[in-house]
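User: Can you predict the 3D structure for this chain?
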Amino acid sequence: MMKKIGIDARLYSQTGVGTYLRNFLYYLDKKDDNNFIYYIYFIDEDFNKINFHRKNIFKKKADFRWHSFSEQIGFLSLIMKDNLDLMHFTYFSYPVFYPKKFIATIHDLTPLFLKTGKASMKYQLIYKFKHIALSFVLKNQVKKAKVILTPSFTVKRQIIDYYGEAYKKKIFPFLLGVDYQLIKEREYLALKNKFPFNFFIYVGNFYPHKNIERLINVFLMMEKSVKLILIGPEDFFSQKIKKLIDHLNLKKKIIVYHPKDKSDLIFFYKNALALIHPSLSEGFGLPLIEAAYFNCPIIASDIPVFREILGKNYLSF
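Assistant: Here is the predicted structure, written as structure tokens:
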């Protein structure tokens, strides 16, 4: 009887983890492997975004959001019913009481190291509760996983330093590559008419640890002829960045752009003066690898993981 492997793909459409998942599943579908049955779990909105060609890969709906109570109860119940021989949790948020064998991908420990709870006391209390819950979930995942995959040796070192040498032998780093969609797509040339000026770019999400507010303040002192284009998803964090840009009267100098597809990114990587990435902490740094692939100069923060993946091939600050 063929063994069953489950893969948690609930973050399929997210940045970072989502890019990892989309590439993972793309190449899994191309792999000549009929020795296992794969169950791939998606939230409802992502279920029809990918179809598999191999007959031993099955999609399953698992509309349970990460960091939620439904994940701990509903998702747990679903994967228990599927009676898997091995489960792969691709993110640190998972059903903590899952009793069977699993492996985990831990992308970084940034949420533990950089606390971002701000604003009112109410939100500080909510954030404190969430941080305690996160610490509990991640500690359990590190302890119970049979194997831990990390996107860099830097993250492996972080886990060992934080949780102890006892877990060293079960942590296996793998380095990420360029998104297959960027390799396949062609540059969207129509953007040249929209951006006919010199510009720097930032690519990624707008979480506080990305340090975008500091980058914006630096651009207050830059020449007016050079612009900054912040490229990332439209969400709560991007709205905060837009409000800051408005407040500083920098709308003509700093542009927030939400890409429609990968062909947009190719244009920006090929035409930017440089990619600027001021992040305070990362598990890897996919935009840096993508920029290097398109020969775009890189200016980035001097943090361990960037030194690991780029060596001396970037300007650090």
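The first strand starts at residue 3 and ends at 8. The domain at 3-173 is CATH 3.40.50.2000 (Rossmann fold).
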